[in-house]
Design a protein that fits this description.
By secondary structure, the protein is α/β, with parallel strands linked by helices. Helix content is 30%, strand content 31%. A 7-stranded mixed beta sheet has the order 12-11-10-9-13-14-17, with helices on both faces. A 5-stranded antiparallel beta sheet has the order 5-6-2-1-7. It is globular. The two termini are 21 Å apart.
Length: 283
């Protein structure tokens, strides 16, 4: 059992959880994730570890209410216990002195970008961050990203804050102007990561994306998280989660991520029917 040490609401339906997991906190590196199960009837869900704190043995994750399992987790509070927290899983981000690293976060993808940006900065790189959301109220971790970035650019789809448009537009402008970029790392919705790769590919800028497909066990045994990268089958949980974005078959992973759409919708409807609006009002 793992105790929730802290819960903070960032925006509607988006929460930061600090969970007591000293073993994971000691070993975690930037880019790795944890598999969480709230109870014996719950599914295992992957979450990137934002930050460990060895002083109190906690790990920090960000959770958005999008389905049954995340809604149940978001309905829990400080002092509650989750059943399982397994990790750290996946390969950590390879850190070296590249030069100028552009970190792109879309929506809640900014959360996994943050620890990578910190590690890249500590590795001696110049960090240019571009984070985006649909509207101002959904922009997260702006202050934290600003603290680790040499430059921070914020975009909103509706123009309510920062640049009116998409993160790719800011990135495209840099490349068109001949700004030296040695590495781009993008995390966010699949269409956004694909768009980032489409922008950088003509310029031959090495681009990494962090994938988050359907996972069951997180250890490579179930095969649920398989993706095609460079015409080869890879398993995100053990081979990733970061891959060369120019080699990822985005069409395939987008289709695979919708495999259980009907079942997920039905599970959410059943949760709402049996428990009402509880998990949307607590916290």
């Amino acid at each position: 059992m793992y105790e929730i040490a802290e819960k903070i609401e960032l925006s509607h339906g988006v929460y930061i959880f600090k969970i007591k997991a000293p073993g994971i906190a000691r070993k975690r590196k930037a880019g790795q994730f944890v598999m969480i199960r709230t109870d014996e009837h719950g599914e295992r869900v992957p979450f990137t570890i934002m930050d460990p704190c060895n002083d109190d043995g906690t790990i920090t994750i960000l959770v958005q209410e999008v389905g049954k399992s995340t809604s149940i987790l978001c309905g829990m509070n400080k002092g509650d216990f989750i059943l399982d927290a397994v990790g750290p899983l996946g390969h950590p981000t390879h850190i070296e002195k590249y030069g100028t690293v552009v970190c792109v976060g879309g929506g809640i993808g900014t959360a996994p970008v943050l620890p990578i940006a910190k590690a890249m900065k500590a590795g001696g790189n110049k960090i240019v961050s571009i984070i985006g959301a649909r509207t101002h109220g959904l922009v997260i971790l702006e202050k934290e990203m600003g603290e680790v970035s040499d430059e921070l650019h914020v975009t909103t789809d509706d123009g309510s804050y920062g640049h009116h448009g998409f993160v790719t537009e800011v990135l495209q402008k840099f490349l068109d102007e001949g700004v030296q970029i040695d590495l781009v790392l993008a995390v966010g919705p699949l269409p956004m990561m694909r768009a980032v790769c489409d922008v950088t590919k003509p310029f031959k800028v090495h681009t990494l994306v962090s994938l988050n497909p359907i996972m069951v066990d997180g250890t490579g045994m179930c095969g649920a998280c398989r993706v095609t990268v460079g015409d080869k089958t890879r398993f995100v949980c053990v081979d990733g989660p970061e891959f060369d974005g120019h080699e990822v078959d985005f069409d395939e992973i987008i289709k695979r991520n919708r495999t259980y759409f009907k079942e997920e919708k039905r599970a959410m409807e059943e949760l709402t029917y049996h428990e009402g609006p509880r998990c949307y009002e607590e916290g």
